[in-house]
Amino acid sequence: MDDSVNKGDRIAKVMARAGFCSRRDAEKWILDGRVSVNGKAIDSPALNVFPSDRIIVDGKPMNKEGMREPRLFRYHKPSGLVTTHKDEQGRQTVFESLPDNLPRVISVGRLDLNTEGLLLLTNDGGLSRFMELPTTGWVRRYKVRAYGHVTQGQLDDLEKGVTIDGVKYAGIEAKLEKQQGDNAWMSIALKEGKNREIRRVCEYLDLRVNRLIRLSYGPFQLGNLKQGEVEEIKLKVIKEQLKGFFQ
Fold first, then answer.
1. What per-residue confidence (pLDDT) applies to 3?
2. pLDDT tens across the length of the chain (247 residues)
3. How many other CB atoms sit within 10 Å of the CB of residue 178?
4. Which residues, 6+ apart, have CB-to-CB distance to 123 below 8 Å?
5. The pTM of the whole model exceeds 0.85
6. Alpha helical stretches, state H, 110-185
7. DSSP strand E in the chain: where?
8. Which of 230, 232, 231, 233 is nearest to 78 (CA)?
9. Could you give the residue numbers annotated as active site?
10. What is the pLDDT of residues 16-29, one digit of tens each?
11. Would you say 35 and 29 are in contact if contact means Cβ atoms under 8 Å apart?
12. How remote is the C-alpha of 29 from its chain's centroid?
């Protein structure tokens, strides 16, 4: 039996797992008197809770998701799906396309409509936030095809960082794989992952991206996963790669 079953988990961690807020916010909410356990208001986050405990946040019972072990899945997102649970424009979403046997999941970050490749999914809101933090230092690697011509020298300059329309982008590692007619194939690695970062940087170099594939997110790889396929990552691997989350 897992030790966490015997010892319980810190309440702030449980609240984050259930998707209420971050651990830091949970601690503040507790100090503000917004949380009760088994009918008693608590004023300290130094409390371990168990599946049998009844937790109330702002007068509403917390579901039991936070008491369960986090689950993480690799998904090969096809182009043409939006990474949202509901799209106002009626476009097909990632979550509508997932197998029916998956639990309710959220994404770790996003891939835009026309980007394909590795998208990580989890049933744990706290885990998702943790993995998205810049402090993880995780590199995201992409394969990129873009219309236009570019030299390795131009790509090397991106390592210094670049400012485009007032937005600063940190250093990017880019390698020209081949120039195939009017299309350049590149491998690009970045840590920040700002909105449409690769597309904007390519436009800065007079390149128009026409295919963008994410190959990895930190230690997790797309590998041979086929488009539309989902594969669960073993809990042992999650705990090995995300030790900071489980501390």
1. 42
2. 344 445 778 888 888 777 677 778 889 999 999 999 998 999 988 899 887 888 888 888 876 655 567 899 999 999 999 998 888 898 999 999 999 888 888 999 999 999 999 999 998 887 888 898 878 889 999 999 999 999 999 999 999 999 999 999 999 999 999 999 999 999 999 988 788 999 999 999 999 999 999 999 999 999 999 999 999 999 999 999 998 877 6
3. 9
4. 65, 68, 70, 71, 103, 104, 105, 106
5. no
6. 125-132, 152-156
7. 9-10, 35-37, 40-41, 48-49, 55-57, 60-61, 72-77, 106-107, 115-122, 140-147, 162-164, 167-169, 173-180, 183-190, 208-217, 220-221, 230-233
8. 230
9. 112
10. 777 677 778 889 99
11. yes
12. 25
Angle (CA) 71-74-80 rounded to 5° is 125
Which H/E stretch holds residue 235? helix 235-241
Domain boundaries defined on the chain: 3-66, 72-135+220-246, 139-217
Q: Angle at Cα 111 formed by Cα 70 and Cα 139, nearest 5°?
A: 70
CB 127 within 8 A of CB 17: yes
> Which CATH number is 3-66's, of 3.10.290.10, 1.20.140.10, 3.40.50.2000, 3.40.50.300?
3.10.290.10
3-state secondary structure at position 129: helix
- With contact defined as beta carbons under 8 Å apart, do 75 and 241 qualify? no
Strands 208-217 and 115-122: parallel
Residues 69/14, Cβ–Cβ less than 8 Å: no
Chain center to CA of 178: 30
User: What is d(CA 155, CA 142) in angstroms, rounded to the nearest whole number?
Assistant: 14
Fold of 72-135+220-246: Alpha-Beta Plaits (3.30.70)
